[in-house]
Task: structure prediction
Amino acid sequence: MINVTHLSKHFKLYKKPSDRLKELLFRKPYHSSHRVLNDINFTVADGEALAILGRNGAGKSTLLKILTGVLLPDSGEVHLSGKLTGLLELGTGFDPNLTGMQNIRTNGLLVGMTPEEIEAKRETIIEFSELGHYIDEPIRTYSSGMVMRLAFSIAIHADPDIFLIDEALSVGDGHFQQKCMRKIRQFRANGGSIVFVSHDLNAVKMLCDRAIVLDKGNVIANDEPEAAVNIYNQLLGGDEEEGPTQPSLPQNGYGSFDVAFEEVTVSGQDSDHHVVSSGEMINLHMDISAREQVESLTVGMMIRDRFGQDLFGTNSYHLGHEVSVNKGETKRYTFVIPMHLAPGKYTVTVALHEGMDHTRHCYHWWDNAATFEVAGIRGALFGGVCNLSPTLEEASAESARPARSA
Amino acid sequence: MRTLFVILTFTRQDLIERYSGSILGGLWSLLMPLVNILIYTIVFSKIMGARLNLPGLEESPYSYSLYLVSAMLAWNCFAATVTRTTNLYHEKAGIITKVSVGLRALPMYILFSESIIYAISMAIFLVFMIAIGHPPGWAILTLPALFLLQQMVAYSLGLLCATFAVFIRDTRELISILFHVWFWFTPIIYVVEILPEGWGQLLAYNPALYFVDAYRQILLANEVPSLQFFAIATVVAFALGKLALFVNRRLQSDIRDFI
Result:
């Protein structure tokens, strides 16, 4: 259980560190103040996982450091019930010249284990890290992945009541990551609380019950992960860091531009943003304008994954939709798509052409006209690239067998 | 409780694991004091033939060695504790900024580690004293008290300097020079009598002199230092300790922000 009330912190900026001493001696301010956290309040219950979202410099790390006790707040209070392990960094105190085995001891203590606990869990830690006999080698001989695996194995076995994690989950290969995720879920099921700082929005949605969004030291949202992620994304959108659309100039793409796209956007019907959940309906809006009259026009789209692989595409021709535009006309076409793709980043390619494909006459073909991201899954979890929405039926083996032989 | 474990582990690391991978390992921690004592004793007694007219040791060829080592071991321990503590926040910044450790508890590991080295050196020195037929007397029972006071002062000075070193980087260089000067300003390898007229009085302002004298009283003359000395030393040690803890506590938030 974590209870944070009226927490504020500002950093004093001095021209040089010794000005701080001058200030004490002469009782005159020598600094300019920079507010990092402004009256922060939140609670994390036992067994709850809270994500902290925010742009760079929003105060996330400072907040985490105050929770850990590495920095002290100016005002406000932090109440923690139970043992806390802060993973601001993996492998704190690792000495490259010592063996993995020896480092388990120092690091274990630093993440809050007692010597007895370390002895008791040593075998489990080594096993979890999958380092095998390398555990008796100095860790300077390890690959960075091995160091991280060892560090995470120690941390995750610290068995605290509260875990603070700063971007630490992207450890090792997929196999090891999944092991870590399982372990973290298990930790929560046993009543542990988690505070989690990450830019991995999918992980936030998958792991957390709630998320707060920090902006310039203020909590601007404290909500369900999905809602908070949307607010966070609008925040990012304001910065054009990952804007949903490119500037809509006809130079984008190629073709005769007799009819051309003006603007292409993707937004979730619920999120109202280009970050959507798997299972949500999305709108792919295309605003087009015509320089000439075109009788039989085809409006098409294609979704590609981050490797540029075509995942799904269709057009008005296949859908049996007659499209024609008059000279000078502007129109909006919207593909409404149930987004059943797996979490990840995707691009949308759009096209205006004649007939069933663009080989006959192409008016405008625009690659990567829009991007969107799927983060989090609504309903049942799934693996792979898309959700085929299966059902599972059960029958006794006797009744199933004749059907197969028939 | 956890803090204690952390400190003990750092102590252990400092003494043993830093030699990990070497053939002799933790023995290196023993070897350095041993060689020191051998040099001081053999070189000065046998090779240079330095003699001192110390009470009870007029005839011994080892008189100067005893005079030197009895003060030198304590000084080495004191100086190492203070200078290493001064560098501590800088050195362990990687840990202080990532894990919750007490700023005032952390220097304890240096205190422990240096004290253990002193204890080892002292044990070797006692064996030597017995071997040359000049075993220490009962007064040695007061040595731990004297050493404790010395290390309290060392911790407090170190903590003060470490605090300042965060804000003024030059502190670290300044301290190593100061200790060099202080060493020569203290009669450790020389006797006060060889100093020119007037210097003796100046030396009276050096607090280290009283500690050095106390060590020699105990180890060489088998005398218990005066109660007055212990009283003043205790007051000074506690006052300095209080000051250092106060300053550090007052600035702890800033220290954490700065490193």
User: Anything to note?
Assistant: Chain A has three domains: 2-82+161-236, 94-151, 259-377.
